[in-house]
Amino acid sequence: MNTNLLNNYAEAVSMIIFAIGFTNLLLHKNLIKKIIGLNIMDTAVYLFLALKGYIKGHVAPIIIDGVVEPEAYINPIPSGLVLTGIVVSVSVTALMLSLTIRLYKRYHTLDLDEISLRLKKEGL
Amino acid sequence: MRDFVQNFPLFSIILCLVSSSASSLLKGKAAKWVNTVLICVVGAMSLTLTFYCLAHGSFTYTMGHVPAPWGNEVRGGVLEGAMGTFFCLIMLLSMTGGRKKLLEEVEDTKQNLYYILVNLMLCSLIALVYTNDLFTAYVFVEINTISACGLIMIRQNGRTIEAAVRYMIMSLLGSGLFLVGICLLYDITGHLLMSNIKESVQALVESGQYGEPLLIAIAFMMMGLAIKSALFPFHAWLPDAYGYSTISSAAILSSLVSKGYIFLLIKIIYRVIGFEVVRESLLLNVTFVFAGLGIIFGSISAMREDDIRRMVSFSSVAQIGYIYLGISLGTQVGMVAAVFQILSHAATKSMLFISAIGLTDASNTSRKFKDLTGSAYRNKIAGMGFAAGALSMVGIPLFSGFISKLLFMQAAVANYGKMLPTMIVLAISTILNAIYFMKTVVRIYSPERDLYKGREGFKVIHTREQIEYTCTVILFIALNVALGLCSEPILELIGKGLEMFA
Predict the structure, then answer these.
(1) Across residues B204-230, what is the average pLDDT?
(2) CATH of the domain at A27
(3) Size of interface A-B (CB pairs under 8 A)
(4) Tally of domains within chain A
(5) What pTM, to 2 d.p., does this model score?
C-alpha cells in the first residue's frame, strides 16, 4: 500500500488538487471563486492524464530520424484527451463567466446566497 | 459492405449539428420549421433503425474505417433505436405544446437562438444514445449541459439566470466526477471504446488485479451521472430550473435531459463494466438507499408546495428515484422496469408541464393553487391533460404509470434482500402521490366560476383559439394510454434491446 502511494505520489497529488477544486466549486458562495474552483478541478484531471500518458525515457510521439518503434515514444492519446478536455473546460468557463456578469449587472453582488435572498424578496 | 441503414446514427448527429449552425442564419419562423422537420427526420431514421436491428441484430459502425481499438465507433441496436425514436417524439410534442408561450416569453430576435439550442440538445441526446466511445460520451454530456443551461435562461429574468447558474454548478460537479471516472478506467484498461473496456475489465476481475481503482472508477462515474440526473440529495437545482424556465424547456429538461444521462448510465453498466461486476461491487446498495429516500422526500417536498409547476418539478425527484430503484435492484427484471419507467415518466411529466401552463394561462398566469380553483373549466383540454397525467402518476390502470408500478413490484419480488424496503417505499410513495396529485385535480375541477367573474386574466380559453396546443395534449394522452395498454410489445422490445447490450 505505502509503496504504491510512494510510486504514484504525483497521481495522488493530482487527486488532492481535484478534491480542492471540487470543494471550492461546491461550497464557495462567491461565483468567481466557484469558477476558479472549476478550473482547478479540470486542471487536476489534465495533470492526471498527462502523468498517465508519460513513460519515463520515451520522447514525444513525433517521428525523428526514421525511428518507428512504438517503444521509443510516449502514449499520445492522453495528450489528445487533455486537448479535448481543455476545449470543453474553456467553453463552460466562458458560459459561467457570462452568466456571472448577467447576475452581477442585475444584483451588484457575486454572492449566490445573497442573490437567492433578493430573488425571494422580489417574489418572482 | 455495410447496409445503408447503418449510416443513420451518424447522419442524425451530423444533421442536428448542421441544422443548428444553419439556424443561426435563419429568422425565427424558418428556424422553427427547420427544427420541426429535423426532429421528424431524426425520429423516422431512429424508427427505421429499430426495425432494421430487430431483423438483423445490432451492429457497430466504425467512423472513417479506422478499426477498433483506435477508431471512434457508433453502435446501433433495438434499444438505442427505440430510445432515439421516443426522445424525438417527446421533443416534438413538447415543442408544439409550448410554442405559443415561447413566442410570448422569448424576445423576437432570440427566437432562432432557442431553436439552435434545441437542435444541439437533440444532437447530444442522440449521440449519448448511439455512441460506443466513453470519451465521446463525455464530450456530448458537456454539450448537453451547455444547451440545457441555454434552454433554462432563454427566458430572461433574475430567477432563470440564478437557476441556470445553480444548474451549471451541479452539472459541472457531476461531469468532473464522470471525467475522473473515465480517466481512471482508461488508466487501468487502456481503452476508450466500450466493448474493449469491457473485455479488459473482465480480464482484470478474473485476475483480481486493480480491484480498488476499478471500484472507485465505477463509483465516480455513477455518482457523476447521478448528480447530473438529479438523484436525491443532488436535486436542489431542479425545482427552480424546471419551475421558472419557458414551458417547452421545462418539458424537455424534465423528460429528456435527465433520461439521457440515465440511459448512458445503463449503457455503462451493461456495455462498459458488465452487469455482474456492478452487482457484485455493492454500489447498487448505495444508489438503492438514495433512490428510496429520494422517492419519499421528493413526494413530501411536492406536497408542501403551493406552486403548481414547482410541485410537478418536485414530483420529478421522486420519479427519478423510481428509475434508480429499478436499476439498483440488480436484476434483469428491475432494469426492464427502470427503462419502462424512463419512457413512462418522460411521456407523463412533459404532459403535466404542458397542461399546467394551460391552466395557469386561464388563471391570470398565477401558479398558486388558490387562483387555480376551477381552472379546468376555463381551459378544458388542459384540465383533461393534467387529470390524465395525475392519474398516470398515481398509478391508475389504463395509464402508463400503472404498468411501471406493477413492473417495480414484480421486480422487487424477484430480489429477496430488497423486497421489503422496496414494497414499503412504493406503498408510501403511492399514497403521497395520490394525496398531492388528487388534491390538485380536485382543486382544478372545483366549480367556483362566479368567484372569478370580471377579474382580469381569468378567462375561458376555447379549443378553437389553441388548435396546436389541443392536438398536442390529445396526442400526449393517447401516447400515455398506448404505453399503458400496449405495454407487452414494448416490454418485449426493451428486453430484446437489453439482451443485445450484453
Answers:
(1) 90
(2) 1.10.287.3510
(3) 84
(4) 1
(5) 0.94
